[in-house]
UniProtKB/TrEMBL annotation:
Residue stretches making up the Calcineurin-like phosphoesterase domain: 20-232
Molecular function terms, GO-annotated: hydrolase activity; nucleotide binding
PANTHER family according to UniProt: 5'-NUCLEOTIDASE (PTHR11575:SF24), 5'-NUCLEOTIDASE-RELATED (PTHR11575)
InterPro entries: 5'-Nucleotdase_C, 5'-Nucleotdase_C_sf, 5_nucleotidase/apyrase, Calcineurin-like_PHP, Metallo-depent_PP-like
Entry-linked Gene3D superfamilies: 3.60.21.10, 5'-Nucleotidase, C-terminal domain
Name of this protein: Bifunctional metallophosphatase/5'-nucleotidase
Record keyword Iron-sulfur present: no
Assigned keywords, A-Z: Hydrolase, Nucleotide-binding, Signal
Residue stretches spanning the membrane: none
GO biological process: nucleotide catabolic process
Family of this protein: Belongs to the 5'-nucleotidase family.
């Protein structure tokens, strides 16, 4: 198997007896992000047309997460995404594995509606649709084989379970035994005489690695095209391991996968990473869909573009910032949490980066839309008490795992933290300090501190364990309204929002091979 991670470039003339896939995952917008410079389905459509003009059999893979969360989906429950994806499917057949956010809504009617409206194929081997609508439930395909490019291509598709960051819904039960389900599916596909197997998954990277190892027994499993992570991933394969690829969220980076039959070498698979940016024009026909939904959004929320405040400096709300490092937008938001329940304000507060969904810079005027896009779903808070030792243990969850852009990464207020992800569990937090009159000191293990955190995290979201919390309030004080209030108050006082993070006094320090000291002495 030949694989590469490089920019899109012409391939040899192998369009006969071959198929070209474009793989994307975790797309929450039908338009571009980063002030229009990155991502966007319109640019993907341009690539589809270019490849088709070369005479290629073009197909699309989607690694899940598209119905929620977004500003638009709060209004239309994903209808705008389905129309956009149907448009792409009509140009290049699309195969989709559901992600955890397809099941954010507790009501099965939402899934029924989006599946009924969709024209693309839904596939999933470790879950089933159980909405009670036989037509909709029958749309989910398992052990799925498709004839394309003169080959029989089989799909192995897996969705993340609630214990690993998924959603637990009666209308869409998920089996957590990924390996057993994968082996059963691979055996089914072999019985159907497939030439190659593509894994299409919405799992954590470590689970994808377990599935990739099945290639040692099932050599036709050549590649796993995944989702759930929000930044590009590439792990080369071998005779004993399938290659793993994942794109960046909102189609900022996608993958091209070419599968072809070679008379001498059998089935060959090549993969190349494609940056979706200003170098690729947006398709004009597709743009009419994006414009239509934009007009509908402004009809429903006519004040959406109204200014509510001003950014003193560019506020970095990109996922690469809020899920990886101290973000000045994340800092401002976390600072609004501590006074959420009145005086005295809480000692500590934090919000998971995955709550902040805008994936963009906020420059100059701050609008209602900036806040609306930041909070793609409700963000109620709780007030509680914890000992310093318990809080330090709690924060270990924010620095587990490897790889970029983790939704559980915390943006913080009222303390500073230094962590080393290379350390064993329970030892990742190297230092956690709180302010005192003459500077900073380590948090006192036996002292009680008040804390404000999202209700989602309190209930076990993103792997945080709040079982040691006491005096816990009911959910209240929705964060997005606190943020609006903070911006409006600053505007009324003639103040702009945000500042450049002080490199000498950061709130968050991640130790790695390039940095070994928490804070300057």
């Amino acid at each position: 198997m030949t694989l590469s991670a490089c920019a899109l470039s012409p391939s040899p003339d192998d369009s006969a007896g071959a198929v070209t896939f474009l793989h994307l995952n975790d797309t929450y917008r039908i338009d571009a992000v980063e002030d229009g410079h990155r991502g966007g389905f319109g640019r993907v459509v341009t690539l589809i047309r270019q490849l088709r003009d070369e005479g290629r059999d073009v197909r699309l893979l989607h690694g899940g997460d598209f119905i929620y969360p977004s500003l638009e989906s709060q209004l239309w429950d994903g209808e705008q995404m389905i129309e956009a994806m149907n448009f792409m499917h009509d140009l290049a057949p699309m195969y989709v594995v559901p992600g955890n956010h397809e099941f954010d809504n507790r009501d099965a009617n939402v899934l029924e509606a989006v599946v009924a409206q969709s024209r693309f194929d839904w596939i999933g081997d470790n879950l089933r649709f159980a909405t009670g609508n036989k037509v909709v439930d029958g749309r989910l395909r398992q052990s799925y084989v498709v004839e394309m490019g003169g080959m029989r291509v089989g799909f192995l598709s897996l969705t993340v379970h609630a214990e690993h960051g998924g959603n637990e819904r009666d209308y869409a039960p998920v089996d957590i035994d990924y390996l057993a389900e994968a082996e059963q599916t691979l055996q089914d596909l072999e019985r159907q005489g497939v030439d190659v197997v593509i894994g299409l998954t919405h799992l954590n990277l470590e689970q994808d690695r377990d599935i990739a190892a099945l290639r040692a027994t099932y050599p036709k499993l050549q590649i796993i095209a995944g989702g759930h992570e929000h930044e590009p991933e590439y792990e080369p394969g071998s005779p004993d391991r399938a290659t793993i690829i994942k794109g960046a969220s909102n189609a900022r980076t996608i993958w091209r996968v070419d599968v072809r039959r070679d008379a001498a070498q059998g089935i060959l698979v090549t993969a190349s990473e494609i940056a979706i940016d200003d170098s690729i024009p947006s398709d004009l026909e597709y743009q009419r869909i994006a414009d239509k939904w934009r007009e509908s959004l402004l009809e429903l929320i006519p004040y959406l573009e109204a200014k509510i405040g001003e950014a003193a400096v560019p506020l970095d709300a990109r996922e690469t910032a809020v899920r990886n490092e101290e973000s000045n937008w994340g800092v401002f938001i976390a600072d609004q949490m501590r006074p959420a329940f009145g005086e005295p304000q809480a000692d500590l507060a934090f919000v998971n980066g995955g709550t902040l969904r805008i994936d963009d810079f906020i420059i100059g005027d701050i609008t209602f839309e900036d806040v609306g896009r930041t909070f793609g779903f409700s963000s109620y808070l709780r007030h509680m008490t914890m000992s310093g030792a318990d809080f330090r243990r709690l924060m270990e969850a924010g620095y587990r795992g490897a790889g970029p852009s983790k939704g559980y990464f915390p943006q913080i207020s009222g303390y500073r933290i230094c962590a080393d992800r290379r350390r064993p569990e329970g030892q990742r937090v190297v230092s956690l300090q709180v302010p005192v009159a003459d500077g900073w000191q380590e948090i006192e293990p036996d002292k009680d501190y008040t804390l404000v955190a999202p209700d989602y995290l309190y209930n076990g979201g993103d792997g945080y364990d709040f079982s040691a919390a006491r005096n816990v309030s009911r959910p209240g004080s929705e964060l997005k309204y606190l943020v609006v209030d903070g911006i409006v108050r600053a505007q009324a006082e003639g103040r702009a929002i945000g500042a450049v993070s002080d490199p000498n006094q950061p709130r968050i320090v991640i130790l790695d091979g390039q940095r070994s000291e928490c804070w300057p002495r």
